[in-house]
């Protein structure tokens, strides 16, 4: 039997060669050794599997028999907790599993004896490398070993994450510093932005500092979060909720970013000051103004400046803070804190007055039409039929409204459906039925009715609001953001619409983060 050691190539499959082994064909031996490589150190084997692999080891010149025998015995002696943990990674591949579970004897054997590729993609289409698996599960010894063996520390997986992204996402300061010291790039973009975006979004100012010390770009723009400075404000909240960070954590990150040269006025998706004002983050507003943020850049969505946003929402304290930094606005005749607030109130009254005037004109027009129909003998019958239709519709709407009050949404939906048959051009019927569909779990039907409402009344914000709610339930958060923004443009003074929009933005970000976490642990 030959004494030379054969090496493996490609994605970790051993390569045959030389004369056939005395106990059987080389194809049998190669396949069995590959099976052994998949099992060694990672999961228990039954007695039949154990004996079969022992026979292969004894008859094969592909592996070191004594070492392989010892490793196999260790496998069968491993505790059940480790076995359960390994099952999470069983679809990744042998080396990925060994690195991700920190089994260094197995990891070294697969690399040094069988020649597994340390940069191979996982078998489950995640695109993760063994290094990424080790980093994602905090296996520092495995990380150091793979780096020493020349692992590619900047290779990205299917969602754009590099090992540095995973270390940052897990909040592992030590691995972040290790990867950076080995030359990991801090500016690789992924589905959640650069590692600096990820660190800021999680409020991990320690990692933010490490990344900046290694020249991470504080002004890199990511489509959903803008710059890291914008991300800090977007992810901050005065109330501690899932997917949000505290205002104090956000401020620490913002100060580190500013010290590193971060810009303050990026308008993607809006300036940090506009966002902080919209979210009533008083401390963030104060800090941004102190370090030079421009208070005169308006929102991308409705063209209002931060001070107008604060006044429209009735937040006098913010108006007072913003006033010294804001240039006089021509449409505000009395440029003072009281004058700005009074202007905002008068604007609301004018908007309501316009709506009342419009309703009055419509009502008068209806009266004129009825008079004309009465004067025309041929139209009397039509007028009578119209009245019957309107009465029937009014009755059905009343019954639907009563059912909604009693939380009988299924019953209410039936009444509105009957009303739609009577008058298919009444947008309010589709809006009401959309609400009912949503409350009984029929989100797709709710979306269909919301679209119908928008087609009939494209200038009515309610239809877009209904659409946003349906899309949120359907997890289509980007489209939900667009729908809520359309509603905001039609009714910019409606604070509930502003809040719904920012909640949709937060949900979109949370979904991206959850999707990335799922790609690291779920089995196909």
TrEMBL record:
ANK repeat feature ranges: 126-158, 159-191, 194-223, 268-300
SUPFAM superfamilies noted in UniProt: Ankyrin repeat, TPR-like
TPR repeats: 393-426, 461-494
Protein's organism: Triticum urartu (Red wild einkorn)
InterPro entries from the UniProt entry: Ankyrin_rpt, Ankyrin_rpt-contain_sf, Cul2-RING_E3_ligase_SR, TPR-like_helical_dom_sf, TPR_rpt
Region span, Disordered: 1-23, 75-97, 352-386
Lineage: Eukaryota, Viridiplantae, Streptophyta, Embryophyta, Tracheophyta
Alphabetic keyword roster: ANK repeat, TPR repeat
Pfam families reported for this sequence: Ank_2 (PF12796), Ank_4 (PF13637), TPR_8 (PF13181)
Nucleotide-binding as UniProt keyword: no
Domain of life: Eukaryota
Acidic residues bias locations: 81-91
Name by which UniProt lists this protein: Uncharacterized protein
């Amino acid at each position: 039997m030959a004494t030379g050691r054969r090496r493996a190539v490609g994605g970790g499959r051993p390569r045959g060669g030389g004369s056939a082994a005395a106990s059987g064909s080389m194809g049998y031996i190669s396949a069995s050794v590959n099976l052994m490589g998949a099992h060694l150190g990672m999961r228990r084997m039954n007695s039949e599997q154990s004996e079969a692999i022992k026979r292969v080891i004894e008859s094969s010149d592909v592996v070191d028999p004594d070492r392989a025998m010892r490793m196999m015995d260790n496998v069968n002696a491993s505790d059940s907790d480790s076995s359960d943990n390994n099952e999470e990674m069983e679809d990744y591949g042998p080396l990925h599993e060994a690195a991700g579970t920190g089994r260094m004897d197995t990891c070294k054997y697969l690399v040094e004896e069988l020649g597994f590729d340390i940069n191979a993609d996982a078998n489950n289409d995640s695109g993760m490398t063994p290094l990424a698996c080790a980093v994602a599960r905090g296996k520092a010894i495995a990380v150091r070993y793979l780096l020493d063996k020349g692992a590619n520390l900047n290779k990205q997986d299917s969602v754009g994450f590099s090992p540095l992204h995973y270390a940052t996402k897990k909040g592992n300061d030590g691995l972040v510093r290790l990867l950076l010291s080995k030359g990991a790039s801090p500016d690789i973009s992924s589905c959640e932005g650069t590692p600096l975006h990820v660190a800021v979004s999680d409020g991990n100012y320690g990692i933010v500092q490490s990344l900046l010390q290694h020249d991470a770009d504080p002004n890199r723009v990511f489509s959903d979060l803008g710059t890291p400075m914008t991300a800090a404000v977007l992810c901050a909240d005065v109330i501690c909720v899932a997917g949000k960070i505290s205002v104090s954590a956000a401020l620490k990150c913002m100060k580190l970013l500013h010290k590193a040269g971060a810009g303050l006025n990026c308008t993607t998706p809006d300036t940090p000051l506009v966002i902080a004002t919209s979210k009533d983050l008083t401390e963030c507003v104060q800090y941004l103004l102190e370090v030079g943020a421009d208070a005169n850049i308006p929102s991308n969505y409705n063209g209002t400046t931060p001070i107008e946003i604060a006044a429209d929402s009735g937040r006098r304290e913010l108006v007072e803070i913003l006033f010294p930094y804001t240039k006089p606005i021509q449409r505000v005749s009395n440029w003072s804190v009281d004058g700005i607030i009074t202007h905002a109130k008068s604007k609301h009254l004018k908007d309501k007055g316009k709506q009342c005037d419009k309703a009055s004109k419509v009502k008068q027009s209806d009266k004129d039409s009825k008079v004309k129909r009465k004067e025309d003998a041929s139209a009397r019958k039509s007028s009578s039929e119209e009245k019957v239709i309107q009465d029937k519709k009014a009755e059905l709407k009343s019954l639907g409204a009563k059912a909604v009050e009693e939380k009988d949404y299924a019953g209410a939906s039936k009444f509105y459906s009957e009303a739609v048959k009577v008058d298919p051009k009444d947008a309010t019927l589709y809006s009401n039925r959309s609400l009912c569909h949503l409350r009984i779990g029929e989100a797709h039907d709710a979306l269909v009715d919301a679209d119908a409402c928008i087609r009939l009344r494209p200038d009515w914000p309610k239809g877009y609001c209904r659409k946003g709610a349906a899309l949120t339930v359907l997890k289509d958060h980007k489209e939900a953001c667009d729908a809520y923004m359309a509603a905001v443009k039609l009714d910019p003074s409606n604070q509930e619409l502003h809040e719904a929009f920012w909640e949709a933005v937060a949900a979109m970000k949370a979904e991206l983060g959850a999707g990335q976490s799922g790609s690291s642990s779920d089995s196909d």
